[in-house]
Design a protein that fits this description.
Elements (H helix, E strand, L loop, with lengths): L20 E6 L2 E6 L3 H6 L24
Antiparallel strand pairs: 1-2
Length: 67
Amino acid sequence: MTDTTTHTCLNCDRPESVVPLVAIRYAGNAGWVCSHCMPVLIHNPERMAGKLAGADQIPAAAHHHDH
């Protein structure tokens, strides 16, 4: 049986036919995030509030730049 459901990025709504999607789970909820929006989830998760339940509670990754 083939899954014919088209998944979309929970942040930008682009479909998997346009960009690669990564499956995520958070606080018991599942979703899909595209490779372009993954940095938003990592560095500015609060920008996904309203799109991913509890996103405003996710701590942003620390920015360490060793030069």
